[in-house]
Amino acid sequence: MATRNIIFFGESGHGKSSVINMILGYDKAATSSSAMGCTFNSTPYPHELSGHNFVLWDTAGLNEGDQGTVTDMKALASLYALLKSLEGGVSLLVFCMRAPRINDAAHKNWQLFHEIICQKKVPIVMAVTHLENEEPMMDAWWPKNENKFRGYGMNPCGEHGSGVACITASKGRLRGDRHYLQDEYDESQEKIRRLIIANSLETPWKVQPVQWFRTVVSTAVKTDCWGNVVEEIRNEEQIEARGVFELKSRWGISLEEARNLARALEGH
Question: How is the chain split among helix, strand and coil, in percent rounded to 5?
């Protein structure tokens, strides 16, 4: 039975590491309560759930900008490099975000990794954190906000339920011998585990490098006065390919910005 690689991604401070710890059942992944990201290198956490072998990948926080320890482009390139490097393929993308609001970076990251890099071949689900105060229950959040996400083109895998886990990754303060949010935490742990088991691919999909650019070769010849070829001049030019044009279209950016982003993703 193939090991299933599960990729957790999203902005720094939105609960990726805390969600992984909740799935594991103990604190292993490093977490940060500050705006400064503490995750740069992608870190694997092997774990078994219901007889299935998983590797939970904690990844660099995306779109931190100047406030984080990882710049935007480095974080994006790090995640892209991870996806390409996994010989065993990818079984599920888990997009982690903090309630209540969706921002522009969220849907751009969703499009880049789900639609452009994984070509919609890998299921994607959503873990929405910090919902312990949602009334009348945590699951009430998604029906109230679903249309906003659909409007951005963010459509979680719906083959098994909504494809969304409305959760809290915090147990709250200890009161006596029990944490204040223990019931909500236990419910969240069960929901996120079910979400992963139900939606991950049994046969992983191997991520292929995106063709950002292609090389066009042209040849010219130089002749003498009698028409004899004395020199052949070969010229190679790198021009935009599918990946760059998809970035430009989906992100609504200029061609030059799309070129620069593609080069950054390749580590240039």
Answer: 35, 25, 40
Quote the CA–CA distance of 103 and 248 in Å, as a whole number.
Answer: 19
Q: Angle between the 242-251 and 255-265 helix axes, to the nearest 10 degrees?
A: 120
Q: What is the pLDDT of residues 246-258, one digit of tens each?
A: 999 998 899 999 9
- pTM of the entire structure? 0.88
Overall residue count recorded for the chain in this entry = 268
Nearest Cα to Cα of residue 107 among 63, 152, 59, 141 = 152
Residue 267 has pLDDT above 80, yes or no: no
Looking from the CA of 236 toward its CB, the CA atoms found within 13 Å total: 4
8 A C-beta contact, residue 94 and residue 9: yes
b/e per residue 3-20 (b: at least 16 CB within 10 A): ebbbbbbbbbbbbbbbbb
- Report the 3 state secondary structure along 155-207: CCCCCCCCCEEECCCCCCCEECCEECCHHHHHHHHHHHHHHHHHHCCCCCECC
Residue 89, pLDDT above cutoff 70: yes
Q: Give the Cα separation of 229 and 107 in Å (integer).
A: 56
d(CA 153, CA 151): 5
d(CA 18, CA 85): 25
Residues 149-196 pLDDT 10s: 999 899 998 766 789 999 999 999 988 889 899 999 999 999 999 999
Other residues' Cβ atoms within 10 Å of the Cβ of residue 150: 11
β 164-166/124-129 pair status: parallel
Report the DSSP beta bridge partners of residue 179.
174
